[in-house]
Amino acid sequence: MTVIEATKRNTVNTMEMFLRNFSHIPDDKLTWSPTPTAKSPLRIAAHTALYAARFAKMIRDQKLPIPENLEQWLEERNKEEQALTTRQEIEPIFRAGSDQVLAALDSLTPEDLDSVLDSGQGWTMSMQHLITLPALHATLHTGQIDFIQTCWNDQQVYVG
Q1: pLDDT tens digits for 118-159?
Q2: Which pTM value belongs to this model?
Q3: Is-contact 141 47, C-beta < 8 A?
Q4: Residue 156 lies in a domain
Q5: Nearest to 150 by CA among 45, 48, 21
Q6: DSSP label at 114?
Q7: Which of 41, 85, 94, 105 shows a CA-CA span of 20 to 30 A to 78?
């Protein structure tokens, strides 16, 4: 199995794991959060879903985002996340973004995989690392969903 094939498989598997765990959030808990400043399950899902397409763009363009105004850039991202207000909006966005990741991965050459991207902010990222981020990102946010479930004593292990 090639690096690209393994990365694609991992991307799909982690997306499915996230969506499966998110599907077990009761409707009345979608906007619940453990503290007033913590993200709700719906907000975590919106963030995770929207970032799939953002990672695809970075991979496809072989360029890291370099916002001129970081605060404004983050505010725009927050507004996009907040605009998603139902469970039904999340899955199609996540799947479309993941499809974009898979297509971007398919477009890479072996030479591309050896490239290093400059952030323009004094740090670099290898393409080898960047291609792992969609799956890693989904995995990390699955952990947040799992933690939130334990806050209301949902101790169930969801495997299917």
Answers
A1: 888 889 999 999 999 999 999 999 999 999 999 888 877 776
A2: 0.93
A3: yes
A4: no
A5: 21
A6: T
A7: 105
Question: Tens digit of pLDDT for each residue in 53-62?
Answer: 999 999 999 9
What's 46's domain CATH number? Answer: 1.20.120.450
Q: For residue 2, which amino acid is it?
A: T
Q: Given CA atoms 107, 108, 109, 110 in this order, what sign does their dihedral have?
A: negative
Name the one residue in this structure whose structure tokens are 């699955």: 142
Split into its structural domains, the chain has a count of 1
Rounded Cα distance between 35 and 40, Å, is 9
Count of positions (residues) in the chain: 160
Q: Residue 108 is part of which domain span?
A: 3-151
Place of tokens 């969903």: 145
Q: Please name the helix (run of DSSP H) or strand (run of DSSP E) that holds residue 117, with its range, or none.
A: strand 116-118
Tokens 């605060």 appear where?
71
